[in-house]
Amino acid sequence: MLRVLALASVVLLGIAPQASQAITVYTSWERHALVGSDIRLSCTFFSWRSISEDVSFTWRYRPDGSKDSISIAHFAGGEAYTDNKGVFKDRVEFVGNPKRRDGSILIKNLDFSDNGTFTCDAKNPPDIVGRPSSVRLLVFENLPIQAGVITGAIIGVVLGLLVLIVVIYYLMRFLVARRVFSLSVRSVPRLWGLCRGREQRPEPIPGTDTCLAKAL
Amino acid sequence: MLCILLGVLALHLLVFILLIVSTASSQWTVEARGHTDLWYNCHSDTQGYHCSQASNEDWIQAVQALMILAVVFCFVSLLAFAYQLFRLFKGGRFFFTSIFQILASVFVMCAAIIYTVMRPDSDKDYGYSYVLAWVAFPLSLISGLIYLILRKKD
Q: FRET partner for B47 with CA separation of 20 to 30 A, picked from A23, A158, A164, B120?
């Protein structure tokens, strides 16, 4: 028993440092935007360690069809630095909150030349081992409707309405049946008043053909 | 009685098959070297036969949805007919069957009308899928109305 415990603790201690060194960066997969609009690209990370003072975010941009990427935004040591020379001059703003693991940037006034891949790399010393995550930006003149969205919506709404109507129909039938039953038990004096006005017919079997029995 | 039953069932099955063929085949508009809508846009040129997705516009998606709904409602009407044939009380009308069949015909009509009005190439010819949709509309309407006046005898 003691040996098992010792073995388990050694294994855990062996695994734990490996796990705590990896940092996982998350961004969206693909973003669509209209020409001339602004877009906020989000970047967040997961790390086993708490946020250090030296947390850093780096955003790189690689245009479509190019192999080189340039740095457009960097946050380190509590300061945000953005592109002041290249294509994104004065168009990039660091809007994230690194203390809350948010390293998002805001790109203003998009143009067709901004189509490309934006890569976010986050580091939380001593957690520095991790793969950067990329988000693809597509800039359109008019936002296209995705295939099948409207089709699915129309089909879903109509079939949903159909199911709803069927459910309501059976529910009403069920409720009406129950209400009739409870009504006749509660408002017996009212029924007696109704029954007195009715014409009397000879009963085939004595005792069953009363007005009350028929109402029930 | 049996003749009427078989005839009505045959008509219903015919409408169902017409709707399926019209929805599934992609021949709503044809031209000299290709065809298009509802789902694919195919044309043949010197390099061979190429197919791409039909356009994503909202009206085509509405036509797709309405045709699919028409097929679904026709099928549900067939099931309702089978159910009501054995479970309906004597003298009853095939109400649910008729309702679903008439709804299916309304959907086909809407789909065909939307396609006719919103089609961008007004000089190209219509294909057989389009024709079948328009044929399916009155047939399904008639089928639905027959179910409305049909009464169960035995």
A: B120
Put simply, whether A142 touches B (Cβ < 8 Å) is no
Contact B124, B102 (CB under 8 A): no
User: Half-sphere exposure of A57 toward its Cβ, with a 13 Å CA cutoff?
Assistant: 36
Domain A19-143 has CATH 3.20.20.150: no
* Pairing verdict, β A92-94 and A105-107: antiparallel
CB contact (8 A) between residue B61 and residue A147: yes
For chain A, the domains span: 19-143
Residue-wise pLDDT for B63-111, tens only, equals 999 999 999 999 999 999 999 888 877 877 888 899 999 999 999 999 9
**Nearest CB to B53; choose among A147, A153, A155:** A147
A195 to chain B, minimum CA–CA distance in Å?
31
Q: Is B42 on the interface with A (CB under 8 A)?
A: no
Closest residue of chain A to B100, computed from CA coordinates? A162
Nearest CB to B61; choose among A150, A158, A159: A150
Nearest CA-CA partner of B27 in B107, B97, B132: B132
The reply to whether residue A145 touches residue B58, judged by beta carbons under 8 angstroms, is: yes
DSSP-based helix, strand, coil % in chain A, nearest 5: 35, 30, 35
DSSP letter assigned to residue A124: B
Residue A149 contacts B, CB cutoff 8 Å: yes
**Domain map (residue ranges) of chain B:** 1-27+56-152
Quick one: which of B77, B76, B75 has its CA closest to B97? Answer: B77
Residue B9: name the closest of B102, B143, B150 by CA.
B143
Rounded to the nearest angstrom, the minimum Cα separation between A158 and chain B is 8
Please determine, for the modelled complex, whether the ipTM score is greater than 0.90.
Answer: no
Q: Chains A and B: how many Cβ contacts under 8 Å?
A: 35
Give the residue, A185 or B3, on which the prediction is more confident: B3
Instruction: Choose the weakest-confidence range: A19-33, B12-26, B121-135.
Output: A19-33
Residue A121: Cβ-neighbour burial (10 angstroms; 0-12, 13-18, 19+): buried
